[in-house]
Write a structure and sequence with these properties.
The protein is an alpha/beta fold. Helices cover 33% and strands 14% of the residues. It has 16 helices and 15 strands.
Length: 507
Amino acid sequence: MNPVAQGQRKGKQVPGAEFKLPEATIADVHRAFRTGSLTSEQLVKAYLDRIDAYDQPTKLNSIILTNPEAMATARALDAEFRKTGKLRPLHGIPVVVKDNFNTKGLQTTGGSVALKGFVPTEDAWQVQKLRDAGAIVLAKSNMAEWAFTPMHSQSSIGGETLNPYNLAHVPAGSSGGTAAAVAANLGMIGLGSDTGNSIRGPASHNALVGFRTSLGLVSRYGIIPLYTRNDVGGPMCRTVEDAVKVLAVTAGYDPRDPITKHSQGKIPDNYTQFMQADGLLGARVGVMRQLVDKNIDPEIKQLFEQAIADLVQAGAQVVDVTIPNLDSLRANQWCADFRTDIETYLRTFVKRDTLKTLEDIIRVGGYSDLVRNRLLTQQTRSGRPVHPEIPCGDAFTDPLRIAYRSAVETAMDRQQLDALIYPTWNYPPARVGDAAGYKGDNSQLIAPATGLPAFTIPMGYTTGTLPAGIQFLGRIFAEPTLIRLTYSYEQATQHRVAPSQFPVLAK
């Protein structure tokens, strides 16, 4: 009997029993490796088989390409384990990587035909750290071209990704390919990037855990930029535990991304120690009523109010919180630096004489009207649209960003809060092609401009099959607190359900 069975099961695997692939965790896999009931080679083959069976046949379209070296890498890791008897932190774990992360020897395009055929000679920082920890790059995932939109994940290199919970709906953008693939169990863990929404939005739409970490905690080196001053890369996983394990091997100072100097002295030796099932006991959590009490779908409102009740049941004290002058603090935070950032990337990594400038990208073509219009706009847009004399600095030097973060943290200090909460989206996932249905995206509003960390986690489902998420926002470099709270909430509620338990992708 094949030790990797195509089944549906949430939670722990029984040592020595037939291995259940869907919803398996890193811990489940490593337990199976140790008992001899599974090898990394078998695991990778099972995921590749599942990609073949589901991704294109269902038109999910989450994967751009698979790694032809994945099986050989898995065999080498199996041999290493047989020889040493030791497992690295992510030993043999297949990862789905968003197509804006450089992957050595594997095409990287940012979703654009302009970069078709570009094969990096080195990995992005986070990809290299995952490989060093024993992970296997299984596949590159589709995305919104150049990460331009949070609405959907459509690209000229890979078409449009759909939501595995309901193929008539979007998975959000821009990391929708990673989200759909991990949600549909086409890979074990995923990497996405988040400029304003793009880890947390797709994670919420696909019943995943998504970490936008503090700006400066993890290097962005080797990620195709949207706006470097806001960009963050990080985990998109089915459980908090797996996301924490990804964070643990990627956080740290990288001189090639100078903003990471701010993380020095702020990274614990072990992030997993903060996963406490009773972590909500005695916690103080603030409800951002400014984001909750208007312009919200009734079903999302009901799910969020139930989430508050669940937090209280788990021992948290929940209070309402107001950030004074929120609208004025939010104003004029965005700066358009795409031209500078993308041309730096092209010069540093791509090194093609025919692809050096934004105009070269526009000349190649092959994208949607939305992407073309955005590229044309970026030709002449730079700096702040209002008060352009204020420099567009990073989260630690920009006076407007510092003031915004200070106001949020002061509001938290005033009520001695561990975190703020709000729905990740105030509305369910939009239908494919319905631009008017894109609304209620709360991820854009606080974390990107302030640099603060924000984690999303499943909080249930609206009518039918559409997931919804709750977001926890914390103080700068307070990832340990967010891990404690989100892990405890996850353990108390267990909202994550695989899409294979719904009609879509069912065996």
